[in-house]
Amino acid sequence: MEGRSTLALVVESDKVVLLDTTTALGELDWKTYPVNGWDAITEMDEQNRPIHTFQVCHVMEPNQNNWLRSGWIQRQAAQRVYVELRFTLRDCNSIPWVSGTCKETFNLFYLQTDEPLSAATRFRPTDYAKVDTIAADESFTQTDLGDRVLRLNTEVREVGPVTQKGFYLAFQDVGACIALVSVKVFYKRCPSTLRNLAAFPDTVPHMDSSSLVEVRGACVENAEERDTPKLYCGADGDWLVPLGRCVCSIGHEETDGYCRACKPGFFKAYAGNTKCSKCPLRSSSHDQAATICHCDKGFYRAIKDPSTMACTRPPSPPRNLVSLINDTALFLQWMPPSDTGGRKDITYNILCQRCDGGDGDGVVTQCEPCDPDLRFIPRPLGITGTSVAILDFAMQANYTFHVEAVNGVSGLGVAARSLANVTVNTHQAGPALVGVVRKDWSSQNSIALSWSEVEQPPSDFVDYEVKYYEKEQEQLSYSSTRTKTPSVVVTGLRPSTVYVFHVRARTAAGYTAYSPNFEFATAAEDIADQGQVLVVVTASVGGFSLLVILTLFLLITGRCQGYIKARMKSEEKRRTRFHSGHVPFSGIKTYVDPDTYEDPTQAVEEFAKEIDPSYICIERVIGAGEFGEVCSGRLRIPGRMAIAVAIKTLKGGYMEQQRRDFLREASIMGQFNNPNIIRLEGVVTKSKLFICLSVCVFMHIDLPVMIVVEYMENGALDSFLRTRDGQFTVLQLVGMMRGIAVGMTYLSEMGYVHRDLAARNILVDENLVCKVSDFGMSRVLEDDTEAAYTATGGKIPIRWTAPEAIAYGKFSSSSDVWSYGIVMWEVMSYGERPYWEMSNQDVILSIEEGYRLPAPMGCPVTLHQLMLHCWQKESNQRPRFNDVLSFLDKLIINPSSLLALVNDVQSFPDSPEDMPDYPLFISIGDWLDSIKMSQYKNNFLAAGYTTLDSISTMSIDDIRRIGVCLIGHQRRIISSIQSLRLQLHHIQQSGFQV
Ligand code: ACK
């Protein structure tokens, strides 16, 4: 073998060197043809390493053809081979007398073979392929001294493609003066690398320089592929276009391009390029490469909890569980547990047991799960709020309710359940009187029911209450109607709807238990119910006969003409009213204005029952009205239990007009049937003789005239609240407001505008049920001491009345809503006088300027917002009563919405626009800033008013005296002081220091 290269494979970063004459040790054994052409000169450097150079310089002789051939160079993996030549080449001009023979280039050739040529093989230049003619870039460089110095040239040429196992290089000199200082042969490659946590091996570029070699990487240890990691190796040995990646597996994180195990106390639950996380609170990891931290004892992680979440535990029991009960609903309220276990997903389950016995006579209490018919609003399990309403419970039963607080880790450990218990006794007047309830007929909007009694009605029977609600809409609000007979036609229903009915009786002693629930559906919209048609026919036939009999009777008594005329007129008016746009709400009948009757007596007869005065026993005077005393007493109708009543009387010596005005209220009240409207029992108008056996003494020379209404034990709401300042929970106050809203919703749906809605006109019964009363005033407000004459001549209770009603007498249900807002304010301030001592005129001006009553002390933000909503200047922007009602229902169902108090966040909201701008103030300066009266700071301070206490007693004169001259500013400051006074009063009562 001849000329095999003895060089070791030298690897530079992106080059593999196949031959380098500067590093070759020993003889190179290159061949020259002819032997005296090229000269191989080997010298030693300082480190005794050989320096191989090849020289040729036959510039004087013509026709030179001198060859120098390398040893055999193994190709290795190379596909494209590069040759780097370093040489000097003398400029022919620098040599004298050589023109014509001297050359300045030489040629590079190569020959591929699969093995070295044998020594015997003759050198044949024609076997070699030419690579290029090599010329010097520059032969000399100029030194600073002006000398010319031979310059070293470096030229690189690509050889190939090389396909056989090895090759020779050959240098042809044709008469130049050359010193070949070094020859380096190499090929390029992409060096092994780590990219995106994947390892890529050394890769030789493609032979074709325009195409790339695709290389797939292998994930490093403890890493896993996301998208197949790839790199492309370019012709120049550069890695290009990284694609895909690997990520560190669970329990490992990336450090310096490798995946290392998480340290103890750290964990990594998901594969990915994230770092190991510190163990969350109340958990730990003891080993390396933890994929999760284990919870400390007593703490847990719910299935859906992320591993990054702190470990938690079940909550402690709910706190302060209380029950409230009224006629129809039982409310349970509680406070969230003191320890939520570190979680926010607390819900509550109500577990109900009915317990009988255990009355102390040795009878053991027996408890069993409650009847499934019990309705829980919003639901029995998974309640997110802190209250629940329970409906359809049995009367005279003992219930034990367990309210269980649960969170996502309840039940995971062995901890006891977090229960709070309350026992409720539901009193009632007796077992159910009504057995089976039947549907007699139904139409699209009505269902006629009748029922049988389980036993003979007791002697103190009063009436039946039929309660119903839409089956699909499990909601707190239900409807009810009363009847004295065991049948009823329930109207105002929706077509094709299933309703749930149950009936109970009322006796003088209270309500009996309800009948079971019965479900009946109304008819579909397009199918007329046969039963209804039948009844309508029967009714009209019956009505006709009645009319004939009545007509005959009235003709005989000489009153027919007037009656028929009056009746026709009123019917006509009613029809006109109906057609003139008032649409009755879903079947609720429309209010008929008694003034539309020619003879108001007819209205009284139509809507109020005449009571025999001998059935009434007046006991004492409880108040004074415009027309006469108001007494309390008992109404004892034969065959019924006596009931407590209030009796309004008309003073003796009245004029006929006064009698009519007095009875007007009865003919209005008699049209209403709603649990939150004062119920008219009847009137006394006709008796010839009246003997009063009571303390209430009448000096009647005229016929006695009385209006008998149900008795309300706690009297008027305003005085009632004033005597109970601070004694109710917010929820109880909201309950009162809700009752009023129910009554007002009913009135507005009937088309009745109250005009004098105020706390003084709301009556309160023994169960805190509030009922709307005082209906005479829808036309005249003469007897309301609050009413003042307006510019338009009407008498109006200014503080309660909407601006458009004061200004133009535009009364509507929307103006009633304004008044309702004032009633809310009265309720929340325990009967405080709206706008305190401000004059009516100032009230009107302040409202006009945009001022609104501030929230009473301790008033939830939500309620004050509702008030402000009711006091919108534009009447059509105020809520309707049913909106108010559903808003209050939401608050009741979710009492936590009542927790944020206005006083917590601001002190002096004074108009809807200004409301959010008021910060808590502490100094006089802050206070004046808060009411935008900062310019008077010095006036106050100079006059010695430096504390809140000191200003609380200031009068309007004091304000003027310290130099506040503008009326509007005086008004603003004094209003704020009034409010402040009220707040100070409350703060002092609650024991805080100001
Ligand atoms: O605040 P009070 O006790 O409640 O004083 C007034 C007074 O009569 C004059 O209106 C009371 N009052 C009016 N109607 C009733 C009623 N139905 N039940 C009880 N008290 C009544 C009212």
UniProtKB/TrEMBL annotation:
InterPro entries the UniProt entry points to: Eph_TM, Ephrin_rcpt_lig-bd_dom, Ephrin_rcpt_TKs, FN3_dom, FN3_sf, Galactose-bd-like_sf, Ig-like_fold, Kinase-like_dom_sf
Catalytic activity field: L-tyrosyl-[protein] + ATP = O-phospho-L-tyrosyl-[protein] + ADP + H(+)
UniProt function note: Receptor tyrosine kinase which binds promiscuously GPI-anchored ephrin-A family ligands residing on adjacent cells, leading to contact-dependent bidirectional signaling into neighboring cells. The signaling pathway downstream of the receptor is referred to as forward signaling while the signaling pathway downstream of the ephrin ligand is referred to as reverse signaling.
Keyword check for ATP-binding: yes
GO CC entries: dendrite; plasma membrane
CDD domains from the UniProt entry: FN3 (cd00063)
PROSITE patterns in alphabetical order: EPH_LBD, FN3, PROTEIN_KINASE_ATP, PROTEIN_KINASE_DOM, PROTEIN_KINASE_TYR, RECEPTOR_TYR_KIN_V_1, RECEPTOR_TYR_KIN_V_2, SAM_DOMAIN
Residues annotated as transmembrane: 533-558, 689-709
Gene this protein is translated from: EPHA6
SS bond list: 57-177, 92-102
Subcellular location: Membrane
Binding-site positions, ATP: 622-630, 648
Species of provenance: Amphiprion ocellaris (Clown anemonefish)
The UniProt record lists the keyword Plastid: no
Quaternary structure, from the entry: Heterotetramer upon binding of the ligand. The heterotetramer is composed of an ephrin dimer and a receptor dimer. Oligomerization is probably required to induce biological responses. Interacts (via SAM domain) with ANKS1A (via SAM domain).
Residues annotated as the enzyme's active site: 756 (proton acceptor)
Any Pfam family the entry gives: EphA2_TM
GO terms of biological process kind: axon guidance
Name of this protein: Ephrin type-A receptor 6
Domain spans labelled Eph LBD: 15-195
